[in-house]
């Protein structure tokens, strides 16, 4: 038996036929797998949340939530999108095979089942999924927050922390669901269009999106980076070599506050505000309060438009 199966990987088996379910559970347990069982799609999804498996063996035709829709819902959740789903069914029609693959299944086994063949398929798919997921987690840990989309801006996969960054931008949503939020689709279409025009990076309020490479002609890979927004005061410090306190005074002057107001806000005396202004005038190269206000506002406005 392979190392994967000796380590007691977990298989979730879903079938509304209790006799067939029992047969599969017994066979997979004899192969040293830990087996979870469910008789409905709804029960499978609930069980998945509590005990994430390494593989799902799923009957396509069930009452209530069928296997195809169950698979789609599994793949819509970033936590489980990497888990391979093997369809196990009596349906032999090509259209059903295609439905299973389009729903996100990695394999399709037609009943009656040859157990040795099923075990071999499970072993291969679990091994491949572990390698792929491990690579994405490693990229994530190294700060490589990656997102792959197709040419129509539909998400294909992303690293776990990239999903968190996208959720912060667009609100909680399932990145791999069939229809992502309109705002996400619009942004990625704009990013793709700008890339084709030669732009290497696009920035939003919360993140930067940089094009990395094209994979196989149909997959576009992007790196996401969280933007650390610099405050007005920090910007003014860097722009004019001000002290932190001087930058605070300038920012309040730009907001139309008087020396008395600024003194009260910063818990200092009006005389201290005046002393700060004397040094600020020198650093900004101006000789009046109105000129200092104008220079500061122009700098802040040019920063906002960059």
Automatic annotation (TrEMBL):
Keyword tRNA processing included in the entry's annotation: no
SMART domains: HTH_LUXR, REC
One of the GO biological process terms: phosphorelay signal transduction system
PROSITE patterns: HTH_LUXR_1, HTH_LUXR_2, RESPONSE_REGULATORY
CDD domains in the record: LuxR_C_like
This protein's UniProt keywords: DNA-binding, Phosphoprotein, Plasmid
Start and end residues of each Response regulatory domain: 10-126
Modified residues (4-aspartylphosphate): 59
All residue ranges annotated as the HTH luxR-type domain in the record: 235-300
A molecular-function term among this protein's GO annotations: DNA binding
InterPro entries assigned to the protein according to its UniProt record, in alphabetical order: CheY-like_superfamily, Sig_transdc_resp-reg_C-effctor, Sig_transdc_resp-reg_receiver, Tscrpt_reg_LuxR_C, WalR-like, WH-like_DNA-bd_sf
Protein name: DNA-binding response regulator
Organism (species): Methylosinus trichosporium (strain ATCC 35070 / NCIMB 11131 / UNIQEM 75 / OB3b)
